[in-house]
Amino acid sequence: MGQLSTIEKLGILADAAKYDASCASSGTAKKNSLGGPKGRGGIGSTEGMGICHAYAPDGRCISLLKILLTNHCVFDCHYCINRKSSNVRRARFSPQEVADLTIAFYRRNYIEGLFLSSGIVKSSNHTMEQLVETARILREEYDFRGYIHLKTIPEADPELVYQAGLYADRVSINVELPTDSGLTRLAPDKSARQIEGAMAKTKADIVEAKDAKKRFRHAPRFAPAGQSTQMIVGADGASDADIVGKASRLYDGFRLRRVYYSAFSPIPDASAVLPLKRPPLIREHRLYQSDWLMRFYGYQPGEVMQAAGDDGMLPLDIDPKLAWALKFRDSFPLDVNRASREQLLRVPGLGVTAVNRIIAARRHHSLRLDDVARLTQSIAKVRPFICTTDWRPTLLTDRADLRRLLAPKQEQLELFAA
């Protein structure tokens, strides 16, 4: 390993990090490069919005330098490419090397921040110390003001996790799998109670830091962009209803900024307890849509679960909002000139922006179908579920083939099309 060049190690450890989806940067506190110790300007800045445009070895466009400190690991999670029994090429960075890489990439305008995770090497505490030291070098020695997301280790000493939150904009702890039984079977070294205990401690630290900031101007910040987590989809037998229920409990219990979903990907020399094929990627997409319904559209978890079939799985051919509307057709059609904002948000094809436009426009005049068409992206999906001054769907809402009419058309793409 000592003979590997920095570029070789970067290739190995950036590739090993691609399975972690939870690296968005929204919600971070605004910082800039002005001021700093002794009147010097700092390096880097962040805005209160998503960061984009960085590069991984396989060509993916991402926002952050997204790497592992090391892909050595003493754990043996069945689904992980970096588990101790896996026959993969290993590499390891020192905290100083990661800090130098981050600064070098930032100065070349490749990135605006760092997402850093790690396999567990030696012990959880030793690894957590290395992650914290990387962030400390960036913040204190380089005065780096860019975004830092640290993946923390629930088995580590709580004081080390707290130190990570003092340097990082966001921290995250992966719950790994939707069910406790799945975690016990596929990740025997991990404990669901320990993971949730660490998340609860981080939540309490975030709340305490915000309260302190209100009372003391120079109180230290702690993970201002909050905490997030990730669940692997399709590695165990958990249904979409199980996953939606778990996500809801995590949002309510730990005030998470995001729950990320990562479709299980078969790995070399996989354990016999894992499925042979990955789940369809569209399943991951449907779960993100259901997550959006709970966070921004006012749906309760039980309502999202109602969109699933008897097997607890969300339909793959239509989105969960349309699936719910088709199951509860007696809630429609809605008069766009009288319905509340909460009701309009349940109309398939109407997003938050379109609903806000409709509510603003109807203050001035009664809306016709053409008016709604100008305020939305596609009127075809909306028409069966609304009424206007000149339009009523009559029997359209109750048509037996309405699902077929509204489902996206399946198209076979050509590999060598011009």
UniProtKB/TrEMBL annotation:
Source organism of the structure: Parerythrobacter lacustris
Gene3D superfamilies, per the entry: Aldolase class I, Photosystem II 12 kDa extrinsic protein
Cofactors, names only: [4Fe-4S] cluster
InterPro entries listed in its UniProt record: Aldolase_TIM, DNA_rSAM_put, Elp3/MiaA/NifB-like_rSAM, Endo/Exo/Phosphatase_dom_1, rSAM, rSAM_sf, RuvA_2-like
UniProt keyword annotations, A-Z: Iron, Iron-sulfur, Metal-binding, S-adenosyl-L-methionine
Name of the protein in question: DNA modification/repair radical SAM protein
PANTHER family (UniProt xref): ENDONUCLEASE/EXONUCLEASE/PHOSPHATASE FAMILY DOMAIN-CONTAINING PROTEIN 1, TYPE II SECRETION SYSTEM PROTEIN K
Keyword Magnesium attached: no
TM annotation in the entry: none
Record-linked Pfam families: Radical_SAM
Superkingdom, taxonomy of origin: Bacteria
Residues in Radical SAM core domain copies: 57-300
